[in-house]
């Protein structure tokens, strides 16, 4: 359908990551893309038809509290920290700990106020939510030193069941509020964006899980191609189970017994598959160096096969 629209509207159609210029364009969401069509080029009947096949996107301003505006300016405009303002008006000190939970909906999300109210049940005390687009933003959580952590799986499930939307989260680490806060946030933001490209199946991400994708993304294209040629040649599609078993082994600290428990396999079966992998690749994944290289290669293979 997209090709037909491009042929019909030609240079009067835009495809972007974020809608803009609502005065001149009607915007729609189709297959997780924003499509803008010049208003002057759409007849009333055509507009009704477009609404039938695609979800219209309306321009709704992101209503932020004063505190949320301050956080937005601090995180995204990289403003210098005003300690006096922080202590007197924001009511927290440099010793307070915060973490940033980035989120991304699979398509533009309209019920922002309702969703924030629903999220309030999962966090104590209250949270700030900054929307950076119609489908993404960041939750700012202050550490209260409670033993029970937030149930992020439940957040995913609640969003799916109550709002009929798919959601992905990047759960950042707690950091003390300081001049380096924005640097930590930038790193986590970059890891999340890259992980969304390489691993599209996961719903909840963390820094330690996504950092390998950042390393892969920084590798030279020639090195990546060499890794593809050697490992993809060694492992055809029908041996994906072997790769997954090795991945679980590495993710469980090279512990055969724990891996067997996670995979519901006998310990000897796991050991056989590890030995088979070592024989095929020449990588000794029983030590850290070999396991690290194998893990990067497996992530690269998964990304290639999943369209990353």
Topology:
Layout: H1 2-9, E1 13-16, E2 25-30, E3 33-38, H2 44-53, E4 55-57, H3 66-76, H4 83-88, E5 97-105, H5 112-119, E6 128-131, E7 136-142, H6 152-163, E8 167-171, E9 175-176, H7 181-198, E10 204-206, H8 207-218, H9 221-234, H10 240-251, H11 256-263, H12 267-281, H13 288-305
Parallel strand pairs: 8-10
Antiparallel strand pairs: 1-3, 2-3, 2-4, 5-7, 5-8, 5-9, 6-7
Helix pairs in contact: 7-8, 8-13, 9-13, 10-12, 10-13, 11-12
- The CATH topology annotation of the largest domain reads as Alpha-Beta Plaits
Mean pLDDT across the residues is 85
First and last CA, distance:
23 Å
- Tell me, what's the shape? globular
- Classification by helices and strands: alpha+beta
Biggest beta-sheet profile: 6 strands, mixed
Put simply, the count of helices is 13
Rounded to the nearest angstrom, the radius of gyration is 23 Å
Mind telling me the CATH class of the largest domain? Alpha Beta
- The strand count comes to 10
User: What low-confidence regions span 5 or more consecutive residues with pLDDT below 50?
Assistant: none
- Helix-strand topology string: HEEEHEHHEHEEHEEHEHHHHHH
**In which range does the helix fraction lie?**
40-55%
**Relative strand content:** 15-25%
CATH architecture group name of the largest domain:
2-Layer Sandwich
Please give the domain count: 3
């Amino acid at each position: 359908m997209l090709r037909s629209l491009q042929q019909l509207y030609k240079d009067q159609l835009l495809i972007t990551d974020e809608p803009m210029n609502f005065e001149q364009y009607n915007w729609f969401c189709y297959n997780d893309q924003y499509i803008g069509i010049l208003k002057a080029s759409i007849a009333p009947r055509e507009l009704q038809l477009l609404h039938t096949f695609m979800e219209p996107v309306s321009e709704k301003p992101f209503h932020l509290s004063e505190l949320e505006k301050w956080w937005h300016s601090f995180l995204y405009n990289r403003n210098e920290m005003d300690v006096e303002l922080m202590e007197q008006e924001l009511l927290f000190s440099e010793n307070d700990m915060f973490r940033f939970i980035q989120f991304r909906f699979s398509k533009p999300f309209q019920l922002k106020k309702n969703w924030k109210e629903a999220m309030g049940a999962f966090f104590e005390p209250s949270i700030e939510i900054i929307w950076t687009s119609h489908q993404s933003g960041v939750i700012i959580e202050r550490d209260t030193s409670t033993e029970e952590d937030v149930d992020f799986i439940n957040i995913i499930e609640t969003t799916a069941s109550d709002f009929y939307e798919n959601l992905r989260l990047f759960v950042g680490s707690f950091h003390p509020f300081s001049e380096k806060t924005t640097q930590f946030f930038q790193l986590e933001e970059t890891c999340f964006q890259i992980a969304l490209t390489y691993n599209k199946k996961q719903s909840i991400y963390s820094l330690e899980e996504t950092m390998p994708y950042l390393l892969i993304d920084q590798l030279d294209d020639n090195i990546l191609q060499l890794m593809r040629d050697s490992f993809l040649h060694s492992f055809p599609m029908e041996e994906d189970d072997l790769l997954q078993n090795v991945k679980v082994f590495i993710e469980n600290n090279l512990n055969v017994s724990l891996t067997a428990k996670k995979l519901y396999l006998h310990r000897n079966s796991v050991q056989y598959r590890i030995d088979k992998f070592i024989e095929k690749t020449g990588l000794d994944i029983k030590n850290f160096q070999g396991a690290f290289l194998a893990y990067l290669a497996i992530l690269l293979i998964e990304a290639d096969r999943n369209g990353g």
